[in-house]
Each structure stands twice: as structure tokens, then as C-alpha cells.
């Protein structure tokens, strides 16, 4: 037993060969939530990555070299994520991809920074990019960029003075809740009810009756897909008629599919959506559905974009240089006209946050309708 | 056991210990991390093995005790207190809570006990997550420092691994002492036949509570090592699934065998590595393997080994007896 | 002579069924009292009530003049009351010596000395003496589970004596033991009774065993005391013959 | 006050689901000392079996029939023959641990062979609402409640009025004696496994339209059902029903009046209190301990 295990470990060490030899494939490492509570997130992210790599390799790769990725499972557990990232870094990848959970990003990003390898991740918690880490990049809006837009909309368009906030009690939900409550304070919007819910919660009757009792002008819902669908159904059943506002997930295709009629009228800010009125995004969605037979959520898009970020950055450098990668990506603007795989124009700032256009959508008769396009800032 | 067998076992033991010290010197950071994780999980599983394997009390709360230990270490060391102080607090805390949690074990057995401890596990998770003022809630505690041991900094992976290995060695020696002491004998009696144990003057209540308390305290010890190992903790790793994982480790390795947790933790920590070629199927295969193992041998892998050795011994003994008998019969 | 055990009006019912229905008797120091009766007459239940394994519905039990009803079996054992069970109750995975040390260890020192003191609680010599006494010498390091039935029965009895008890309750010590072994067992019990002034209460179906070992015999039927006397008296009692030979 | 009434109704509807799942759980315990830690997953799986049949092109009604048959085969017969029978001789605890492994295996299998994503599931009850005494109640909730009541009545009749029921009760109380008086004990035990499989399939059919089909949806349900069974009384069918309804109501009231952050704690505390002070459960018979 023991000797077998040592042999295995030694083998893993030895197999880290010269990764950057000319013509050899460019090695990428992905660590994602392939099992456990974040399996939906991680598998979408992984499929997006695989799709992009397949496309790029079919067209001859990056600078004439193929891309090659290894996927590792964090089991949605930060401890395991740390081990897997450590392992990935020991093999000296060109770029590290993932994880998707903010907690897992938090424990792994110091490792990548220490190794001097850029990490392109899916986490959305505001604080991730506030710590001065020079190697960490987002693929989507952080909560600190999306929530102000939601709060502004609730204030300007919905003219709500009191809002009930329903959030899922994990790092994703709590993060969003904390940022939006701060934003509400700026507009003097009162939080009429502050409802924590559990991931996987099935029964929202009590939560909705609390919302009813609080009689807010609007409800802000920040939950995962399934829970979003369930609460929408319950809100409809208990005849709550005030506007329902969300961010990305609430108005996603999956929620509409699961909630049916109950999703009608729900609104939300969406940074990345496969329903965006952008031709390239629609084309992506078709390709994805063709390959995997389901409609991806925004995590599928994030994985896909991560790979094209690598391609655009490498093309810009003109060489495969892991040390210069992060510097090049900071301040870089990638235009969809030049690199169609990036789908929409995007700019990365010095913190690794992104700037891209966003959308305000509403569900009308089971379809996402874009009510407003929020342009890219610069 | 013959003298030869004894020497052979001592030699094997020394070889394994030497290998654990020398071989990892060339390991990369990941290898060291995995080995450190193995040492930490082994300590937690040893605690559960005492409660479950020796004393026969099922617990689904070991993960929660690892959590209590980890939070104690994280909170205290980020305040600048030394890890050794945190260790002391964690042991006392887990021992006391384990003692209290043992009380239901005096009233109920088996499945009821499983559910009491399961409930405790859930409650502990909720406290970790909801009490922001203490645990920083779902955001977790980051920047947990690694300790200085006898003047040596353990920031680098190799020294920290030796720190974990040293802790494991100390815990193993203490455990070895415990199970060879009259207490260990009383624990086994408790598991095998509590009625008879009572009639021999064994205070089964006190020993049951002790088994719970000591087992839980070891969970706390594992937790105080886990925190500086990952240097970041949040409530998620300490949910029910850690308790289930630890239970599986004890069962798979061999519950009630001293080396069971070592083996079980090794399989659990390294199995994803071995079964990587199976991609997403590995947990499924693991589950099936555990079921098959339990059907074949409810005392785990070491149980199979033990049975094999016992059979050989019985065969040898009955052969001897047959020889002796034939001599008697042929005697004039 | 003082009464080592005094049982006064002990009753035990399960639901509506009276398993033990008002039994009183006492046992003098050094006595060997036989307890016989048909199956299901409440003998073992009475044992369990005396020993605290079952709480009696009513009545009182005294050991050496001290009321012990309500004490736990372990506490009683440490007061010097020991027992064996009808079915074999040795610890099969422990060796013969370990079984005996286990049986004696709670009578030594305290919790702390049992943790930090020597592994055998200082009982190796005593255990080996007991092993010698019961003629199990060649088996000292064997796992108890590997012994023959008769040997395990001897061990079971030996364990009851490890704590140096004043009073021992034996539940069918002769059941399933072959003739040679039976002789050994009887002789050993008699020897302990003689040498250590230990007092016995013995449940047994083997009449020959009871009649030759015991100084006094008590007969139970349907939860009640039917007869009490010397072996000869009991043997001649018509009510006893009636109960044994059927209605 | 109207709020409270709403919560009670919602709690009863959820509780009826827990009760359905808990009933089979107690049946298995009574006849064969099986603690099924995979009971929640047993409810999760039939929905996927039905979905798989539908994906193959079959209409919904056929999928229901085949789904129930497959459940009887896999979760009834297969579970008993392949796991319980070979494990039972090892005792209660190893079997319980084996079912924990089974739960993991089932979740992973569904995730790998079906999907990690939630899927919608058609409802056999029309999706409308009815208004009773001014309360809006969904037909789905009413359906679950009605079925739970039907199951209690049906099971009670079966157990108390039929000879099979008497034989099952005899098996549950004392298999050895039952065997001596000529009860086909093995067949009775198998029957309880089949009844359990049927109940979980029914529960799956009713719950999945509300809870959605997802590999992990059994976790919450299984735990709630265990708690319901213990709180109500492990050895009584009506105990499991009462426990289920109670847990459903308590959970909803806790969310409304205690704290949403700690709502999951309240049933757990209830469980601990019950085990400490009334281990046989609210309606259970005490199990005579031989010690």
C-alpha cells in the first residue's frame, strides 16, 4: 500500500517536464467544484473551458501551439481546493483556472501569487480583488460592480423606499447581501426584511409570509438557480405582487425553465447571460448546447471566456511567457471584433476586475427581454 | 506471535517511520501537503476509532470537533496567541463538549446516538456560520499563521509536515498507552458486552463518557493542526460530510484496530489521486467499494487481515492438537 | 454467623406478568445455596433483581446488612458481589489472562492509577494464580474465543472470583460442560468456598451437581418460593416432586 | 394571526411529505432492524427513473408505472437482496454505515449518468390553487396531504384488519416466535421492503414537481424524515406521521418566529430533547431493554 502511494507521488513529481518547449502543448490547470455543493458551478465552468480549447485547437492553437488542460476536483471544499491548486502549481502551468467558489479562491490565490502564476477564477465576492493580489483575474463582475447597478435601478426606476432582501447563506449570497445593503443605505432605502435561507432549501412558505408581513416596495432575491425558482413559485402562490429584482441568477434561463409562469415579471441585472442580445453570445450558446445538450448558465460562459482571455493575452505578448502574463492582462482591452471568442468587449483594470457592458432584463412570457443595456464604462 | 515475527514487525515499523521522515524530503509542495493532511486526518480518525472502534459508540460529530479545534486555533493564533495555547483550549473545550454529548449515549444506543450526534454536527455548523462576531461567519478566517516549534519556523511545507508528523507520533504513543492500559481493556469490554462489563465492576457510564470525551478531544487536536495547514478556514469543510468521511475512514481501515485510522485516512486522502483516471466516477466507486468491503468484512481491511491470521493460527493450533491427540491415543 | 445476603419480599413484573412474586430468603457466610426450579420460574429474573441489572418492582436487597437495591451492577460488584451468566460471557478477543485482569482491575486503585499505572493494573500474578487454580495454565495467552466450551465456562467462573468477592451468584455454571470438566469445576468451587470463605448462590438444572455441592437448596415455581431446606429435605418434598414432574 | 394560519397550513403540507418518507423508514426498522440512511436518496431516485423513461419517449403515465416498477425492483428487492441480507448478520451499525455509503453512491450515480443540474418534473396534480376559508392552498400541497392520510388509513387497515397485516406485525414484534407459529417471516420482511419502495416512489412523484429533480434533493428530506420518525416514535406508523407533520410545522414556525439563520437548528434541538426525555418518541411504545 504505502510503497505504491510513494511511487505514485514520485511519478507525479517526475512527470513535470519542460512545459514551455517550443511546439509542445501549452499546459493549463483547472481546479473547480466538480463534485459537492458547487457541482453545478464547477461542471459548467469546466465544460466552457473544454469547449473553448476544442475550438482554439481546431484552428491551430495559440501561437501555433495546442492548449492542454488538466481538471482537478476541489469537491467544493477549500481545503481540498488548496491541495489541488498546490498540485497544479507544482506542475508549473501557464495559467491557473478556477476555482469558482469565493472561499476556495481566497485560500488558493496566495499560492498562485507566490508561484507567480496568473489565476483566472470564477469567484464574485467583492473582497477577492481588494487585497492587492497582482495575479488574480475575474471573468465576471464582482459584486462591488454589479450591486451598485442593482441598487440604482431599484431606486431610480422602481422608486422603492423599502426592500426585502432574500439571500442564500453561503459566501456568494452573504457577500451580495452585504454589498447591496450598503448600497441601499446610500439611497436611504430601508431593508424591510433581511432573510437568510439555506442552500438546497425546498420550502419557502415561511420566508414568503415574512416578506408579505413586511410589505416592502420591492423584493431583492439573491439565491442559486433552484432556490430562485422555488421562491418565485411561492411568491406567486402567496400573491406577492411587488417588483422582484435579482442579479444574474434570478432571471437565468434555468430559473425560467424551472419556475415556469412564476418567473414572469422578475427583473434583474445580468453581467453575463446566454440570453444577451449579442450575436456572438447566441452563437456560443448554440455551440454549447450542441456539444453538451443543455443550456449553460453564466459559469459556462466564464469558463469559455477564461480561455479566450488567455489566447488574447498571449497573442498580444507574441510569446508564451507565464511571468509576463499578468502584467500584460492588467489594463488590457480585448475587442470582440479582433477576438470573437471574447464575445463582448472587455477591459481589465489593475486589480484584475473587469469592465464590460451589462444588461437589465425582465422575464416576459418565459423569455428574457433586455430592457436596458448598461454600457461599458470606458 | 513468534520471536521472529516480533522482530520482523519492529523492523517494519522502523522502516515505515524512517520512510515517513526521509522520503518526503524530495517531495514537491503538493506531496507534502497531502501527507500533512493525512497526518491530521489520521489523528481525527484515531479519536473516532476510540469512540466507535474500541468503545462501540457511534458518533457522527467528529467533524464538528475538528471544526471546534480549527476555529479555536484560527481565532486565537490570528490574535497573536501561540498555537500551543490554542491546543490546550481546544482539548479542554472538545473534551468538555464530548463529555456532555456522551450523556445521550448512556440512555440510547445505535441509531439514536447517531442522530443525536448528527444533530450536534448540524448545530455546530450553524454556530460556525452564523456567529459572525466570533468566527467571521461564512467569509471564514484567513491569514492563519503557522507556528514556531522549538524555535523553528514551520512556514515552509517540509517543516510543517514534520510538525504534523511529530504531533501524530505523540498522539499515537498516547493512544497506544491508553488502549494498553486498563482503560483500553474496559473500552473493549464496553463494546463487546456491556452487561458483563457491568457485572465485573466496570463503571460503563464513566468509561462511555470518557471514550466520547477523549475521542472528541483528539478531533480538536486534529482541528488545531488543520487550521495552520490550510491557513484559511470557513464553516463549509466542517459540515456533516466531514463526519461521514471520518466515519468511513475508521470503518474502511478497520474499526477497533490500532492502525485502522492510519490506513483509512491514507485511502481517503489518496484515493482521489489513485482513481483520477476514473474522472467523476471515483466517489461512486468509493461508495460501492465501501459497501462491498462492509459486506465482506464489517471491521474493514485490517479485519480481513486479522481474520486471515486468526484462521492460520487456528489451523496451526488444531494441527498441534491433532498431533497431541494422536500421540495420546498411540501411547501404551 | 451473619447473613451475607438478605432478600426481602422482592417482586418483579413485566407488564401484567409476575415473574418474581414476593421472594424472601437469606444466605449465611460460607454457605452454598442452590436455587432450582422449572424453566421460566423466575430464577434468572430474581438474580437480575438482586444484582441491580433489573429494578425490582418491590422489595429490598441487603448485602452485609447494607441496603443495595437501586445500586448499579458495577457498584454492587465493587462491594464484593460477583456473578456469572447462564450463557457464556467471556470476552472472546481478549486472552485468558486479559479476561481475568479485566475482571479484577476495577477493584484496584482509581481511575487515574488505571490510566497512568501499569498496563496489568498489578494483577498479572493474581491472574496467573487464578489460571493455575482453574488448571488453564497452557492457555494463558490464547484468545478466549478460541477455547473449548468447557474451558470458557471455567474461565467465566474464574472471572467471577478475580475481585475477591464475598458473594458469588452463579447462573447454571454446569450447563453444557462435559463430565470430566464438571468434576473439576465442582471441586474448584468447593475449594474456593473452603479456602476463601466465599458465599455462593447457584442456579443449576443438574440435580446431581446441586445436591452434592450445595449446603442448602431453595426451590422456586411460578415466581414463588416453593421449598427450602437441605438437599435431602428438598428431594423428599412432595410439592417439589409435583412441580418437577408436571401437574 | 392570519399569518400564523398560513404557516400552519404550509407546515402541514411540508410535514405530510416528511411523514410519507418517515413511514417506510419505521417499517424497515420494525421488521428488519434496518436504519436506512439512504431513505432521502430513495425518494430522489424514482423521479429520475421516471424522467429517464420519458426521455426515451414514453408518455408520462407509462413513465409513472415503469418508474414505480423499477423502484420496487431496485429499492425494494435489490436493496434487500444485495445489501440488507448480506449485511444483517453483522448487526445494526455496519448496515447503517453501508446505507450511508449507498446514499453517496446513489447521488453520484445520478449526477454522473443523468445530470448535476436540477430538472423540472411534471405534476400529476394540476398546478392550480384552491381557496379554503379564505386561505390560498396549492392543489399540490393538498394532494400530498391527501395521499399521506390515505397511506396512514391504508397501512393501518392493512396492518390491523388483514391476515397479512397480522403476520407482518408478528414478524415485527418477534421474528423467532412468528416463525414458530408459521408466519412466512422472510416473505413478510420482503413485503415491507416493497411497501417502502412503493411509498418512496409515490413520495417522489408528489414531491419532485415542487422540489425539482436534483441529485442532492434527498439530503434534506432524508434528515427531516429521520427526525420525524424519532420524534414521533420509531416503532409506530402513526408516530411517524405525527412526527412528520410536527417537524414540518415546527420548521415553518421556527423560520418565522425564531430566526431564519437558525431555523435548521430547531428540529435538531427538538430531536435531542425528545431522545433525552422520551426516547421512544411521542407516540412510540418503549422498547424493553434487557439490561
TrEMBL record, chain A:
Signal peptide annotation: 1-21
Pfam families in UniProt: Peripla_BP_6
Keyword annotations from UniProtKB, A to Z: Amino-acid transport, Signal, Transport
Record InterPro entries: BCAA_transport, Leu-bd, Leu_Ile_Val-bd, Peripla_BP_I
Annotated Leucine-binding protein domain residues: 25-366
Gene3D superfamilies xrefs: 3.40.50.2300
Presence of the UniProt keyword Transmembrane in the record: no
Alphabetical GO biological process terms: amino acid transport
Keyword Cell division in annotation: no
Family, per entry: Belongs to the leucine-binding protein family.
Protein known as: ABC transporter substrate-binding protein
Species of the source: Bradyrhizobium jicamae
UniProtKB/TrEMBL annotation, chain B:
GO cellular component: plasma membrane
Subcellular location: Cell membrane
Main location: membrane
Keyword NAD attributed: no
Transmembrane helix among keywords: yes
Ranges that cross the membrane: 7-27, 33-52, 59-77, 83-103, 110-128, 160-179, 207-226, 246-271, 283-305
Keywords noted in UniProt: Cell membrane, Membrane, Transmembrane, Transmembrane helix
GO MF entries: branched-chain amino acid transmembrane transporter activity
Protein name according to UniProt: ABC transporter permease
Entry-linked PANTHER family: HIGH-AFFINITY BRANCHED-CHAIN AMINO ACID TRANSPORT SYSTEM PERMEASE, HIGH-AFFINITY BRANCHED-CHAIN AMINO ACID TRANSPORT SYSTEM PERMEASE PROTEIN LIVM
One Pfam family recorded for the sequence: BPD_transp_2
Topology in membrane: Multi-pass membrane protein
From TrEMBL, chain C:
Keyword check for ATP-binding: yes
Any one GO MF annotation of this record: ATP hydrolysis activity
SUPFAM superfamilies: P-loop containing nucleoside triphosphate hydrolases (SSF52540)
SMART domains with a match to the protein in the record: AAA (SM00382)
Key words of the record: ATP-binding, Nucleotide-binding, Transport
Highest taxon, organism lineage: Bacteria
Domain named ABC transporter: residues: 5-247
InterPro entries: AAA+_ATPase, ABC_AA/LPS_Transport, ABC_transporter-like_ATP-bd, BCA_ABC_TP_C, P-loop_NTPase
A GO cellular component annotation in the UniProt record: plasma membrane
A Pfam match: ABC_tran
Stated role: Involved in beta-(1-->2)glucan export. Transmembrane domains (TMD) form a pore in the inner membrane and the ATP-binding domain (NBD) is responsible for energy generation.
Protein's name in the database: ABC transporter ATP-binding protein
Protein source organism: Bradyrhizobium jicamae
UniProtKB/TrEMBL annotation, chain D:
UniProt xrefs under Pfam families: BPD_transp_2 (PF02653)
UniProt topology in membrane: Multi-pass membrane protein
Family (UniProt): Belongs to the binding-protein-dependent transport system permease family. LivHM subfamily.
Keyword field contains Transmembrane: yes
Xref: InterPro entries: ABC_transp_permease, BCAA_transport_permease
Recorded GO CC terms: plasma membrane
Places the protein is found: Cell membrane
UniProt-recorded name of the protein: ABC transporter permease
Any one Gene Ontology BP term: amino acid transport
GO molecular function, one term: transmembrane transporter activity
CDD domains, A to Z: TM_PBP1_LivH_like (cd06582)
Main location: membrane
TM helices/strands, residue ranges: 7-29, 49-75, 87-106, 137-159, 189-212, 224-250, 262-281
Keyword terms: Amino-acid transport, Cell membrane, Membrane, Transmembrane, Transmembrane helix, Transport
Amino acid at each position: 500500500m504505502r510503497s505504491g502511494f510513494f511511487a505514485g507521488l514520485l511519478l507525479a513529481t517526475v512527470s513535470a517536464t519542460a512545459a514551455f518547449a517550443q511546439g509542445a502543448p501549452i499546459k493549463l490547470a483547472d481546479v473547480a467544484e466538480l463534485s459537492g455543493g458547487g457541482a453545478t458551478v464547477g461542471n459548467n465552468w469546466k465544460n466552457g473551458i473544454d469547449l473553448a480549447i476544442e475550438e482554439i485547437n481546431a484552428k491551430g492553437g495559440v501561437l501555433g501551439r495546442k492548449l492542454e488542460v488538466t481538471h482537478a476536483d476541489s469537491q467544493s471544499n477549500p481545503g481540498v481546493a488548496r491541495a489541488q491548486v498546490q498540485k497544479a502549481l507544482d506542475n508549473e502551468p501557464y495559467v491557473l483556472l478556477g476555482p469558482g467558489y469565493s472561499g476556495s479562491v481566497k485560500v488558493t490565490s496566495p499560492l498562485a501569487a507566490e508561484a507567480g502564476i496568473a489565476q483566472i477564477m470564477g469567484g464574485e465576492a467583492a473582497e477577492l480583488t481588494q487585497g492587492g493580489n497582482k495575479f488574480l483575474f475575474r471573468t465576471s463582475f464582482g459584486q462591488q460592480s454589479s450591486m451598485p447597478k442593482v441598487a440604482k435601478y431599484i431606486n431610480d426606476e422602481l422608486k422603492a423606499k423599502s426592500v426585502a432582501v432574500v439571500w442564500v447563506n453561503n459566501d456568494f449570497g452573504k457577500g451580495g447581501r452585504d454589498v447591496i445593503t450598503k448600497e441601499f443605505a446610500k439611497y436611504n432605502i430601508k431593508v424591510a426584511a433581511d432573510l437568510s435561507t439555506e442552500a438546497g432549501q425546498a420550502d419557502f412558505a415561511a420566508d414568503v409570509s415574512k416578506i408579505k408581513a413586511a410589505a416592502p416596495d420591492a423584493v431583492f432575491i439573491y439565491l442559486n438557480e433552484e432556490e430562485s425558482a422555488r421562491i418565485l413559485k411561492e411568491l406567486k402562490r402567496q400573491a406577492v405582487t411587488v417588483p422582484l429584482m435579482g442579479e444574474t441568477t434570478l432571471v437565468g434561463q434555468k430559473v425560467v425553465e424551472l419556475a415556469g409562469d412564476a418567473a414572469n415579471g422578475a427583473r434583474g441585472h445580468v453581467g453575463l447571460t446566454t440570453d444577451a442580445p449579442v450575436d456572438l453570445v447566441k452563437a456560443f450558446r448554440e455551440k454549447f448546447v450542441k456539444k453538451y445538450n443543455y443550456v449553460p448558465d453564466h459559469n459556462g460562459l466564464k469558463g469559455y471566456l477564461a480561455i479566450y482571455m488567455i489566447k488574447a493575452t498571449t497573442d498580444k505578448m507574441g510569446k508564451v511567457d507565464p511571468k509576463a502574463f499578468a502584467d500584460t492582462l492588467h489594463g488590457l482591452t480585448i475587442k470582440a471584433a479582433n477576438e470573437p471568442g471574447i464575445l463582448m468587449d472587455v477591459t481589465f483594470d489593475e486589480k484584475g476586475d473587469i469592465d464590460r457592458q451589462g444588461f437589465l432584463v425582465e422575464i416576459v412570457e418565459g423569455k428574457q427581454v433586455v430592457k436596458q443595456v448598461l454600457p461599458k464604462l470606458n | 506471535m513468534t520471536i521472529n515475527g516480533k522482530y520482523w514487525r519492529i523492523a517494519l515499523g522502523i522502516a515505515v517511520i524512517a520512510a515517513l521522515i526521509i522520503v518526503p524530503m524530495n517531495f514537491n509542495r503538493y506531496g507534502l501537503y497531502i501527507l500533512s493532511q493525512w497526518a491530521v486526518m489520521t489523528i481525527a480518525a484515531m479519536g473516532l476509532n476510540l469512540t466507535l472502534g474500541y468503545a462501540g459508540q457511534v458518533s457522527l460529530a467528529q467533524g464538528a470537533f475538528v471544526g471546534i479545534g480549527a476555529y479555536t486555533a484560527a481565532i486565537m493564533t490570528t490574535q497573536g496567541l501561540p498555537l500551543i495555547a490554542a491546543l490546550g483550549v481546544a482539548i479542554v473545550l472538545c473534551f468538555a463538549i464530548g463529555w456532555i454529548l456522551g450523556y445521550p449515549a448512556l440512555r440510547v444506543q445505535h441509531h439514536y446516538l447517531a442522530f443525536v450526534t448528527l444533530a450536534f454536527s448540524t448545530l455546530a455548523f450553524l454556530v460556525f456560520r452564523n456567529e459572525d462576531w466570533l468566527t467571521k461567519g461564512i467569509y471564514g478566517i484567513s491569514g492563519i499563521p503557522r507556528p514556531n516549534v522549538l524555535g523553528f519556523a514551520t512556514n515552509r511545507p517540509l517543516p510543517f509536515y514534520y510538525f504534523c508528523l511529530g504531533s501524530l507520533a505523540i498522539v499515537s504513543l498516547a493512544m497506544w498507552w491508553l488502549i494498553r492500559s486498563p482503560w483500553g481493556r474496559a473500552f473493549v469490554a464496553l463494546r463487546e458486552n456491556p452487561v458483563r462489563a457491568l457485572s465485573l465492576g466496570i463503571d460503563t457510564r464513566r468509561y462511555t463518557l470518557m471514550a466520547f470525551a477523549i475521542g472528541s478531544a483528539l478531533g480538536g487536536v486534529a482541528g488545531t493542526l488543520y487550521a495552520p495547514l490550510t491557513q484559511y478556514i470557513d464553516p463549509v469543510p466542517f459540515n456533516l460530510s466531514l463526519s461521514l468521511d471520518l466515519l468511513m475512514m475508521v470503518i474502511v481501515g478497520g474499526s477497533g484496530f490500532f492502525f485502522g485510522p492510519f490506513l483509512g485516512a491514507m485511502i481517503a486522502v489518496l484515493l482521489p489521486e489513485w482513481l483520477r483516471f476514473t474522472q467523476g466516477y471515483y466517489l461512486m466507486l468509493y461508495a460501492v467499494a465501501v459497501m462491498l468491503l462492509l459486506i465482506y468484512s464489517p471491521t474493514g481491511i485490517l479485519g480481513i487481515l486479522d481474520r486471515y491470521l486468526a484462521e492460520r493460527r487456528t489451523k496451526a493450533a488444531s494441527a498441534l492438537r491433532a498431533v497431541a491427540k494422536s500421540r495420546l491415543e498411540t501411547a501404551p | 454467623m451473619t447473613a451475607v445476603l438478605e432478600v426481602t419480599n422482592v417482586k418483579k413484573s413485566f407488564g401484567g406478568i409476575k415473574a418474581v412474586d414476593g421472594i424472601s430468603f437469606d444466605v449465611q457466610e460460607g454457605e452454598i445455596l442452590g436455587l432450582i426450579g422449572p424453566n421460566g420460574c423466575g430464577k434468572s429474573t430474581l438474580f437480575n433483581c438482586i444484582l441491580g441489572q433489573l429494578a425490582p418492582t418491590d422489595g429490598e436487597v441487603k448485602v452485609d446488612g447494607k441496603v443495595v437495591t437501586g445500586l448499579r451492577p458495577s457498584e454492587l460488584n465493587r462491594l464484593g458481589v460477583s456473578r456469572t451468566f447462564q450463557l457464556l460471557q467471556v470476552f472472546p478477543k481478549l486472552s485468558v489472562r486479559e479476561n481475568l485482569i479485566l475482571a479484577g482491575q476495577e477493584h484496584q486503585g482509581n481511575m487515574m492509577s488505571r490510566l497512568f499505572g501499569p498496563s496489568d493494573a498489578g494483577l498479572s500474578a493474581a491472574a496467573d494464580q487464578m489460571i493455575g487454580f482453574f488448571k488453564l495454565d497452557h492457555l494463558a495467552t490464547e484468545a478466549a474465543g478460541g477455547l473449548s466450551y468447557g474451558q470458557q465456562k471455567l474461565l467465566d467462573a474464574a472471572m467471577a472470583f478475580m475481585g475477591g468477592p464475598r458473594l458469588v451468584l452463579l447462573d447454571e455454571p454446569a450447563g453444557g460442560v462435559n463430565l470430566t470438566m464438571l468434576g473439576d469445576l465442582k471441586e474448584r468451587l468447593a475449594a474456593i468456598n473452603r479456602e476463601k470463605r466465599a458465599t455462593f448462590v447457584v442456579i443449576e438444572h443438574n440435580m446431581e451437581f446441586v445436591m452434592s455441592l450445595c449446603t442448602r437448596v431453595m426451590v422456586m415455581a411460578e415466581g414463588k418460593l416453593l421449598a427450602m431446606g437441605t438437599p435431602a429435605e428438598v428431594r423428599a418434598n412432595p410439592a417439589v416432586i409435583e412441580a418437577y414432574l408436571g401437574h | 394571526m392570519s399569518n400564523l394560519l398560513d404557516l400552519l397550513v404550509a407546515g402541514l403540507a411540508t410535514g405530510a411529505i416528511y411523514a410519507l418518507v418517515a413511514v417506510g423508514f419505521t417499517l424497515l426498522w420494525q421488521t428488519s432492524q434496518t436504519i436506512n440512511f439512504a431513505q432521502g436518496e430513495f425518494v430522489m431516485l424514482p423521479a429520475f427513473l421516471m424522467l429517464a423513461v420519458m426521455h426515451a419517449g414514453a408518455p408520462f403515465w407509462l413513465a409513472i408505472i415503469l418508474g414505480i416498477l423499477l423502484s420496487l425492483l431496485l429499492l425494494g428487492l435489490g436493496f434487500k437482496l444485495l445489501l440488507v441480507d448480506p449485511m444483517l448478520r453483522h448487526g445494526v451499525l455496519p448496515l447503517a454505515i453501508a446505507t450511508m455509503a449507498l446514499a453517496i453512491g446513489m447521488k453520484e450515480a445520478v449526477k454522473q449518468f443523468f445530470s448535476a443540474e436540477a430538472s423540472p418534473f411534471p405534476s400529476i396534480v394540476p398546478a392550480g390553487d384552491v381557496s379554503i376559508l379564505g386561505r390560498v392552498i396549492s392543489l399540490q400541497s393538498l394532494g400530498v396531504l391527501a395521499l399521506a392520510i390515505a397511506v396512514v388509513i391504508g397501512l393501518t387497515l392493512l396492518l390491523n384488519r388483514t391476515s397479512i397485516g397480522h403476520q407482518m406485525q408478528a414478524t415485527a414484534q418477534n421474528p423467532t416466535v412468528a416463525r414458530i407459529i408459521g408466519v412466512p417471516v422472510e416473505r413478510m420482511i420482503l413485503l415491507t421492503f416493497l411497501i417502502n419502495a412503493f411509498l418512496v416512489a409515490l413520495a417522489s412523484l408528489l414531491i419532485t414537481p415542487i422540489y425539482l429533480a436534483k441529485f442532492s434533493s434527498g439530503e434534506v428530506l432524508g434528515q427531516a424524515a429521520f427526525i420525524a420518525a424519532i420524534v414521533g416514535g420509531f416503532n409506530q406508523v402513526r408516530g411517524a406521521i405525527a412526527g412528520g407533520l410536527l417537524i414540518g410545522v415546527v420548521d415553518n414556525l421556527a423560520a418565522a418566529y425564531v430566526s431564519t439563520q437558525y431555523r435548521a437548528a430547531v428540529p435538531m434541538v427538538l430531536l435531542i430533547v425528545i431522545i433525552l426525555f422520551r426516547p421512544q418518541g411521542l407516540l412510540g411504545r418503549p422498547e424493553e431493554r434487557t439490561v
